[in-house]
Inverse folding.
């Protein structure tokens, strides 16, 4: 009895030792700022010292809030399906014939992601501006002759989705490819023996087996899309298209540093936190994402 | 491990997490206090931190050379982050620069407000006769009865034009905006591809709406502004410019865009109402329009119908501010004053000096500059006194013009259609920065 308890205590201590560095950093730079933001969101810049829902009322009635929700929603509606379907499609294609071509292509898909976000935005600005783009003839053929034809405000969400897809897809292909590699060879063999073609194998065998990774990807993609900031703020400062409060994160930045209202900025961050937590919880509890073999 | 032990372990971990979070919260709340309001007496030996843009850096270095005893540190900073940084310093209670140069006069309104509490009043720190020599140039630095900044330069508008091409086409310079519109129609019909302005930028406010006196930043007092885009002084701008945007004689792009730069290089910018610094900063540099010598000249701004003065707007006009947190306010004010008024420095400065005597010294440089087809100084000097006083620096920036009017222009809609949106956004911004809005 005592030995087993001691062994349990030792294994628990080992577990703590392994998770402690991460847990401490998460508390210091994730949880604590979030708790502080929640506190700050109940304060009010107009009535310092009072706690209440003033900042929430002001943010919800701000003329910038609902258009920003609309912009971000449009971006998410375009980007998330393209990202999820695109990644799965490319990963399944690369997995169909594993070989030199497949690994070369994986590297090529990964490369744009190696460029940091802000640099990628600048790169895309040059590629999309018909005056300077190396693809100018293609842009002209599409009826886009100068920068204002391209960067008009109604094009912004699709442009951001395009940039985010190209820069983000490579990393997720690597993850999905890894997941596909984890599928036992015998399973695919027996599917083939049962007469499943490449489409059947991909859709009925491989896809269901990697669905947890797909859900994981959707949670992270949702959170990332909700927080879009670099693309709209850089495109705004270069092309004057969009605004300094196109996205929710930009609006929070404008509250904090444009008008010095940290309470309303914190309110926007809490709204972002609630939305992405709600989406994550929905995906976790409405799917079997967190069920493990050990528990079941 | 039994399920029971597991859940007890989880509870403990959760309790520890809450405790740690609470401790961190308390710590961060302690350090985030408001800056102390009391201030010790000046220390003339305290090192002064100067924040400047690259253009003004040479000036500060010249001051250091002329005054080797003054302990100072010159740093360039990102102008877009100025308000951000001051906010953060206010939270941390240290780190403020002692002297700041900003290209945006609206920064003075924000930084002098109770929200930022940054600028030191200069009324008693700058000698009266020096203040007098600025004429009206420092008027926009007087906020709530206090002098909160010193103006470096004026960014008054003139009508820059391409003299040889105007002569070749046989066009007369427009003296009213009605004539300007008529010229635009003529240019579109006779020489399509040439432009007489570019409005796809916030400069449509500086050059057109401001010169007309459209009330967008009309300060009544510290807590009240007038914003009314239905005012005839706003709608007459839309009526004038919409047909020209439609026929292409005024570009829908920004004057700083590659599209307009290409037109500039091809000498297809026939004229453009723009700030005093456009000659040296936009027409001259090879990286921009790269216009050859003896081509560009300046004409007076046209007059809006019903006005007796050909008012100008202003695109910029940098300011020097001194921090009220400085340990050496007098020393900091001395640097700001030298930068704004030294004839040695201002005569070589690239922009039109706000300080009267310095402007006269600056004129000598323009008179011998072969770049201009005619010396633009007399026109610039005349416009310097005609910046429409309807607009003043405000705590809200004018960026709502970009999100409404400029967005309409670039997507092919009319300026007239965007004025209602502009009203909503600008009034919302004004209210969010503590102004009551009257129409």
């Amino acid at each position: 009895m005592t030995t087993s308890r001691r062994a349990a205590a030792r294994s628990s201590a080992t577990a703590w030792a392994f998770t402690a560095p991460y847990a401490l950093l998460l508390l210091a730079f994730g949880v604590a700022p979030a708790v502080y933001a929640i506190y700050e969101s109940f304060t009010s810049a107009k009535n310092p010292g009072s706690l209440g829902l003033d900042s929430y009322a002001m943010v919800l009635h701000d003329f910038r809030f609902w258009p920003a929700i609309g912009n971000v929603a449009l971006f998410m509606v375009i980007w998330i399906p393209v990202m999820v379907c695109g990644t799965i499609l490319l990963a399944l294609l690369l997995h169909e014939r594993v070989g030199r071509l497949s690994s070369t292509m994986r590297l090529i898909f990964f490369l744009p992601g190696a460029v940091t976000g802000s640099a990628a935005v600048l790169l895309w600005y040059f590629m999309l501006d018909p005056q300077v783009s190396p693809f100018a003839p293609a842009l002209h053929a599409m009826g886009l002759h100068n920068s204002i034809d391209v960067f008009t405000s109604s094009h912004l969400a699709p442009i951001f989705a395009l940039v985010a897809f190209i820069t983000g897809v490579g990393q997720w292909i690597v993850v999905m490819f890894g997941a596909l590699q984890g599928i036992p060879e015998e399973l695919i063999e027996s599917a083939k023996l049962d007469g499943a073609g490449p489409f059947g194998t991909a859709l009925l065998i491989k896809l269901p087996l990697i669905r947890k990774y797909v859900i994981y990807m959707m949670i992270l993609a949702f959170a990332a899309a909700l927080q879009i900031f670099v693309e709209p703020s850089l495109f705004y400062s270069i092309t004057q298209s969009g605004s300094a409060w196109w996205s929710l994160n930009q609006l929070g930045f404008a509250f904090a540093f444009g008008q010095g209202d940290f309470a309303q900025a914190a309110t926007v961050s809490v709204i972002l936190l609630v939305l992405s937590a709600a989406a994550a919880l929905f995906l976790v509890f409405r799917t079997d994402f967190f069920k493990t073999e050990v528990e079941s | 491990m039994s399920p029971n032990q597991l859940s007890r372990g989880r509870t403990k971990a959760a309790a520890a997490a809450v405790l740690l979070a609470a401790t961190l919260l308390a710590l961060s709340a302690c350090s985030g206090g408001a800056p102390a309001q009391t201030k010790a007496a000046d220390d003339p030996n305290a090192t002064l931190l100067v924040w400047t843009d690259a253009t003004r850096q040479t000036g500060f270095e010249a001051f250091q050379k002329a005054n080797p005893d003054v302990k100072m540190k010159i740093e360039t900073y990102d102008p877009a982050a100025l308000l951000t940084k001051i906010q953060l310093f206010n939270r941390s209670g240290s780190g403020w620069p002692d002297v700041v140069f900003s290209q945006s006069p609206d920064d003075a309104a924000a930084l002098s407000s109770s929200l930022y509490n940054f600028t030191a009043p200069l009324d008693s720190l700058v000698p009266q006769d020096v203040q007098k020599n600025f004429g009206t140039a420092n008027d926009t630095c007087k906020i709530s009865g206090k002098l909160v900044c010193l103006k470096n330069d004026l960014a008054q508008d003139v009508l820059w034009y391409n003299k040889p091409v105007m002569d070749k086409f046989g066009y007369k310079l427009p003296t009213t905006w009605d004539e300007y519109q008529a010229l635009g129609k003529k240019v579109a019909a006779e020489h399509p591809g040439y432009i007489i302005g570019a409005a796809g930028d916030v400069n449509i406010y500086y050059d057109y709406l401001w010169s007309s006196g459209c009330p967008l930043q009309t300060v009544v007092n510290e807590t009240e502004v007038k914003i009314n885009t239905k005012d005839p002084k706003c709608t007459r701008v839309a009526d004038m410019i919409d047909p020209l945007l439609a026929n292409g004689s005024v570009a829908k792009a920004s004057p700083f865009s590659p599209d307009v730069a290409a037109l500039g290089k091809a000498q297809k910018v026939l004229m453009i109402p723009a700030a005093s610094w456009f000659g040296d900063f936009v027409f001259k540099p090879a990286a921009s329009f790269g216009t050859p010598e003896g081509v560009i000249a300046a004409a007076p701004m046209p007059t809006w119908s019903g006005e007796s003065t050909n008012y100008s707007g202003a695109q910029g006009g940098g300011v020097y501010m001194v921090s009220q947190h400085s340990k050496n306010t007098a020393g900091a004010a001395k640097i700001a004053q030298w930068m704004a008024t030294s004839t040695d420095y201002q005569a070589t400065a690239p922009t039109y000096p706000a300080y009267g005597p310095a402007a006269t010294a600056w004129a000598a440089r323009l008179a011998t500059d072969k770049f201009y087809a005619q010396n633009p100084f007399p026109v610039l000097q005349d416009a310097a006194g005609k910046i429409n006083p309807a607009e003043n620096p405000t705590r809200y920036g004018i960026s709502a013009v970009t999100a409404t009017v400029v967005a309409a222009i670039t997507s092919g809609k009319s300026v007239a259609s965007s004025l209602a949106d502009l009203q909503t956004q600008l009034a919302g911004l004004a209210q969010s920065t503590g102004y009551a809005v009257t129409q």
Remarks:
- The first strand of chain B starts at residue 48 and ends at 52.
- Residues 48-154+316-367 of chain B form a domain with the D-Maltodextrin-Binding Protein; domain 2 fold (CATH 3.40.190.10).
